[in-house]
Amino acid sequence: MFSKGDHVMDKIATERTKSRLGTQVVHAGEPRQNPYGSITVPIVQTAAYTFADTDALEQFMAERMFWDKPEFQEYGRYGNPTVRVVEEKLAVLEGGEEAILLSSGMAAITLALLILLHPGDHLVITSDLYRRTRTFCHTFLKRWGVEISVVPPGDLEALEAAICPRTRFIFSEIPTNPFLHVIDLEQLVAIARRHQVYTIVDSTFATPCNLNPLAYGVDLVVHSVTKYLAGHNDLLAGVIVSSSDLMTPLREAQAMFGAVVDPSAAYLILRGLKTLALRVERQNATAMTVAQYLETHPRVRRVWYPGLPSHPDHAVARRQLRGFGGVVSFEIDGTGEETRRFVDALRIPRLAPSLGGVESLVTIPALMSFYDASPEERAALGITDQLVRLSVGIEDPEDLLADIEQALAQLD
Ligand SMILES: Cc1ncc(COP(=O)(O)O)c(C=O)c1O
């Protein structure tokens, strides 16, 4: 598919050294010349690849290194040219050497942890990880003989104290869900290096626009591509990005586990990524405006947004993030019933569990991701019936503010 002179890797080298994010989201990883002179990367919708004759087949088998040959593969589970372009673009955006695109964010997280941890290993996680990630650690990983320690977000002393000789990884999110804690990556990496432990960071909420964890020395970055990267609430995908040789076993495992992305979905991701910088810039700005507005409203008890000085991690966030993100969490000053009334009165944000897309989405965590959590678990994590999480889309900010204002007015 790609001629030699236009190999994607040459392009990446150029994009890496020369362009900024707004240009990279459009061009990085893409061949300059596509088949048929197509401006856009073709969707190579195939399950397997044909060989001209048995000599060509034999030569391929003798030389094969599946993921080193973006221009040719043998079978769709081992690689696809459309998928490969998305991977190259995401590697550039995160400043990593390599990216693996998978069928969902959870596929990325579970594959990384299952393959890189062995029985007897120890893993340190923070207590506010995405609930499914925590459940995976406490159920599946424990079943495979991996021991888990859970530490409060932001408590780096507790994190260091939890490390033992068997600790192999620290896993954290940035910012976290729903309270948007921002861990100090410099300190996290310093602790990890002191104890020769690897770090994985789920940077879904930050996006490569607001943060590049690899630049701080984090070993592996994962994203739910479903959220900001794809950005249109229309597909599921995940990615692992790294410059370390930890990627080789992960690539091999993906070829076996089969958690691959369909070429059509890969094209939609590519298309979504073109506007990532624009979307996130808008979402950062609107979320800040909404957070500031909510903080002054008498029917709002508390707001969590890392861009506000009132957020416990504001200082770290200012130092580390280029933008504070598109998610705002807040508590209604009222009952759970009133909180539901407020959410039901919203006309623009839809009631749905995801985030990061062009449509604003709102959720009451107690009614959704923590519906089946025990009262003790909810209390420990601060999940109240009044807590609302708003993922700001790209709608007109004034419309969004007016909508929130009228919904809050329903409580009077
Ligand atoms: C921070 C974070 N990581 C991972 C995931 C899982 O991603 P996916 O839904 O694409 O499997 C989510 C999903 O909500 C998330 O919020």
Strand order of the largest sheet: 1-7-6-5-4-2-3
N-to-C CA distance: 63 Å
CATH topology of the largest domain: Aspartate Aminotransferase, domain 2
Q: Which stretches are low in confidence, meaning pLDDT under 50 for 5 or more residues running?
A: 1-13
Number of domains: 2
Percentage of residues in strands: 5-15%
- Which second-level CATH architecture of the largest domain applies? 3-Layer(aba) Sandwich
The number of strands is 12
Shape, per Cα inertia axes:
globular
Mean pLDDT score, rounded?
A: 93
**What's the main sheet like?**
7 strands, mixed
Helix content, binned percent:
40-55%
Structural class: alpha/beta
Number of helices: 16
- Rg over CA atoms: 22 Å
Order of helices and strands: HHHHEHEHEHEHEHEEHHHEHEHEEHEH
* CATH homologous superfamily caption of the largest domain: Type I PLP-dependent aspartate aminotransferase-like (Major domain)
CATH class descriptor of the largest domain: Alpha Beta
Named once each, the bound ligands are: pyridoxal-5'-phosphate
Describe the structure.
- There is one protein chain.
- The protein is an alpha/beta fold and 412 residues long.
- The chain folds into two domains: 4-273, Aspartate Aminotransferase, domain 2, CATH 3.40.640.10; 278-409, Aspartate Aminotransferase, domain 1 (Alpha-Beta Complex), CATH 3.90.1150.
- The protein contains 16 helices and twelve strands.
- The protein has helices at 8-18, 21-27, 54-63, 81-94, 105-116, 131-143, 156-162, 185-194, 207-210, 247-257, 263-273, 276-296, 314-320, 336-345, 375-381, 397-409, and strands at residues 98-102, 122-126, 147-151, 167-173, 198-202, 220-224, 238-242, 300-304, 327-332, 350-351, 361-363, 387-391.
- The strands form two sheets. The chain has a seven-stranded mixed β-sheet with strand order 1-7-6-5-4-2-3, sandwiched between helices.
- The protein is globular.
- The relative contact order is 0.11.
- The model is unreliable at 1-13 (pLDDT under 50).
